[in-house]
Amino acid sequence: MKLYENTAAALSRMLTKEEVSAVEVAQSFLERIGDLDPLLKAFVTQTPDIALKMAADVDQRRKQGESLHPLAGVPIAIKDNICTEGIKTTCASRILSNYIPPFDATVVRALKAVGMPLLGKTNMDEFAMGSSTENSAFFTSRNPWDTGRVPGGSSGGSAVAVAAGMAPLALGSDTGGSVRQPASFCGLIGLRPTYGLVSRYGLIAFASSLDQIGPLALTAEDAAMLLGVIAGYDRLDSTSLPEDVPDYHRELETDIRGIRIGLIRENVDQQFDREVNAAVKKMLTVLEQNGAVIGEVSMPLTDYGLSAYYLIAPSEASSNLGRYDGVRYGYQSAGRHLEEMFSNTRGEGFGAEVKRRIMIGTYALSAGYYDAYYLKAMQVRTMIRRDYETAFKSYDLILGATTPTPAFKIGEKTDDPLQMYLSDVCNINDALAGIPSISVPTGLHSSGLPMGMQISAPPSGEKLLLKVAYFLDGQSRAFPQRPQLKTSEGGCN
Amino acid sequence: MGRYETVIGLEIHVELQTASKLFCGCSARFGSEPNTNCCPVCLGLPGSLPVFNRRAIELAVTAALALNSEVQDKSRFDRKNYFYPDLPKAYQVSQYDQPLAKGGFLEFRDENKSRLVNLERVHLEEEAGKLIHAGESILDAEYSLVDYNRAGIPLLEIVTKPDLRSGSEARLFLENLRLLLLYAGISDCKMEEGSLRCDANISLRLTGSQELGTKAEVKNMNSFKAVEAALNYEAVRQEKILNAGGKVDQETCHWNEETKETIPLRGKEGSSDYRYFPEPDLLPLVIDKSLINKLTALLPESPLQRYQRLQEQYGLAESEVQLFIENRELGDYFESAAKKYSNYHNLANWVQGDLLFQLRECGCRLDQLLPDHLVEILDLLDSGEINRPVAKELLAESLRAGSSPRDLVAKKNLGRIADRDQLLPLVNQVIAENPEAVENFMLGKDKAIAFLVGKVMALSGGRADPGELNQLFRELLKKKNGCEANGTS
Fold it and tell me: Which CATH number fits domain A3-258+400-476: 3.20.20.220, 3.30.70.270, 3.90.1300.10, 1.20.58.2050?
């Protein structure tokens, strides 16, 4: 078994026992990146020198007898909208294609403090707006299960890196499904934490009230380990939760007896792929057989959620992205006067989807439209939150499919933004409600593609989510965990 | 009363006197090298987030309390979106429909009458950076430089109701507002440094009417004087339009300090839509009662309260009180000295007269002379131990040396000379040296005595007792006159 084939937990054990060095581990992943990334295109920026230097540092500290964090020496890939001091952070946008932040995001500081070598910055949809990485200004990442298909998005590069063994762990960001949907498409665990659990300081904003950084991992155990590193109060983020964080990893267990679980009717909709729904129901049966109490719940506001989301997120984005004006940093175009310089810079610097959302958001916030759009959407958001509160009176967890279908083909939805938006239909309401939500693999579709199930908990319910995911890992990982790197017919290559 | 009544409302921005900025730890100091007091937060770098400066919130609440404005339990921050190079995030974090405080008023004296101007609201927001245009003005600049030192400094916005009726009243209001904010330690209120700025809305209506006319917004008034002049100019301009049967356009004008006229800024701001929405990076601002109680208890005396107290407590003249209100430091000085000196009128005279004069003369600061030392000088003078000219000299000397006047009197031998044996040689010398004046006195010109006394005063360094001298001269010269009369007969 190659080093890069291991889970983070396995690597952690090997490192702790000094069976391998952090440099060896890093080298293994860097070689894998060298072999596969030209095909899969997960990384916008690779940082081999930094990874090796950080790994060597961990090895030296271990040699000196320092007590290290279990993840010390376990490398990681980071989505390219999370600021890394001295390393290009582009948001996969032309407008930031040369931007080098002067500071680390709080999560990056946490990773550095633990000693997790940074392998590189991963590809994404531009400013996290998209579900396939096709909106990246640079290139589209390939799904390792079928390189003619998208890996999902917007954290597609991170998902590809972990699924293909180019990184044992990765950070993504989830605004309306951007961690969970690619996790589902690539056969991974993807966790969106409670809003405020993980600091947003240094996460380049798309929609501030929705953005959350979350882990992408091969197993629930790996996700729990990584969440433990990045979660916790940060005084630099005013929306950070002032709460103590449990030791997610140490508190993992598999006793799921008595947990009340509700199947969300709308998230196993008849319109969804039948195999996707069947896989969810099969998982539910496994849970029931092991002592969980199963029921059904309806979340009728699901459809409104999507509409509300596509007003709130673009509204905030239209404001958040105003700063890219060419005056201080990033791409700058010429102009005969100030307005023209602004206009040319933004016109040339942003891609089509980003511009579409800026326009939608600008419209929704405009005088005379604010009440009908933004305000109405915020009211829907409040109603959705209440819907969840009601559901969580009867159930500890609620679940459904993560996505209506497995990964779609590259180019399949690029001409129809609405179809693209609909691929996040199951993921959006959790984000609007600010509750934690995890996508777990449910096995392979007859097409050979992975499928996923999404489980949601009340605020700060990460521990419970990880417990159920951990239990399912132990029960149902009979399917091949690793992609075979095949290419289907009809996919653009 | 004229045909039209002028209606003015003001929008005042004051930079709060905090050590650091509103949302980050950067220094809020004025006058640093450009772009040195900056960090990712106030530069709005991607990924940065704002965090409240508690001190700024306390100062803003204190200001609201001093302005009798009702501090809201819960207020909210909003984003005001627009593009401009001095605005690093392309939005200003401000407060829109849920301001920090609502209502309020400022009461002040206008020529013996009390005047009350109502306020609409008081809210907190962040300052933008500063553009420096390479050229005469914004219109003909070839390029502009931007300094973000100012970006993110806490800014208080105070909006009045349309309660003001003339440019001079607006000026008076501003002068009193400035004093109030200075007293409460809110801001240094320096218009020339931009820490206090004022925009005005002005319209005319038929006298007696309750409806508001179409308003113009006047900006770029950089002094209280400019506010008065600009509003007076604008009132006349609008009156001319209305008298000619025309209509006033709703527009924004710039006051031109050179030409002394208001110039419309065409097409720039007429239709701006700031797309306000709640700032998602900040939680609502909750001000609890205990903070309000604490800050209320800490509120210093207001200028108006002080005015009334100084009049009652010391029986001072209006002009003196006014001086001590406007020059708070001087008023404090007076009050400190008045604890040990009960002739308040005399004390006030010295403080606003000789003391101010000497401060100007030597370029000294007020804190270089202890109030106790001034009292010592006045006591020495009152008891006749020194003369008035010596007192003035002593004042200057104590100010420069910082030492006790009584010690200086002893050391420099400045005490009054009333002893005849000491005075006689000087008197004789003056008589010998000034035969003409002596002659004049002999001829009955009584004024000549004053000249002779003055000569001795000069010789004695101001120390001689003028009363004693007067008597001595009269006695000596009368005697002399007698002798000469005898000799010639």
Answer: 3.90.1300.10
Please tell me the predicted confidence (pLDDT) of residue B422. Answer: 82
- Residue A372 has which token pair? 């009908």
Chain B contact set for A335 (CB, 8 A): none
B347-364 CB burial, b ≥16 within 10 A, e <16: bbebbbebbeebbeeeee
Contact between residue A172 and residue A74 where contact means Cβ atoms under 8 Å apart: no
Which residues of chain A have a Cβ shorter than 8 Å from any chain B Cβ? 82-83, 89, 91, 96, 99, 101-103, 105, 200-205, 207-209, 235-239, 315-316, 318-319, 322-323, 325, 327-329, 338-339, 342, 362, 365-367, 370, 374
Confidence of residue B485 (pLDDT cuts 50, 70, 90): low
- Alpha-carbon distance of B128 to B144, in angstroms, equals 15
Taking only the tens place, the pLDDT of each residue in A375-397 is 999 999 999 999 999 999 999 99
Total CB pairs under 8 A between chain A and B: 96
The per-residue pLDDT of chain A, averaged, comes to 95
CB A210 within 8 A of CB A308: no
d(CA A488, CA B12): 67
Is B137's pLDDT higher than 70?
Answer: no
Contact (CB, 8 A) for B79 and B125? no
Interstrand relation of B251-256 and B105-110 (parallel, antiparallel or unpaired) = unpaired
How far is residue A285's CA from residue A294's CA, in Å, rounded to a whole number? Answer: 9
**CA angle (B223 as vertex; B217, B225 as ends), nearest 5:** 90
Q: CATH classification of B420-488 is 1.10.940.10, yes or no?
A: no
The model's pLDDT over A231-265, given as tens digits with 9 standing for 90+, comes to: 999 999 999 999 999 999 999 999 999 999 999 99
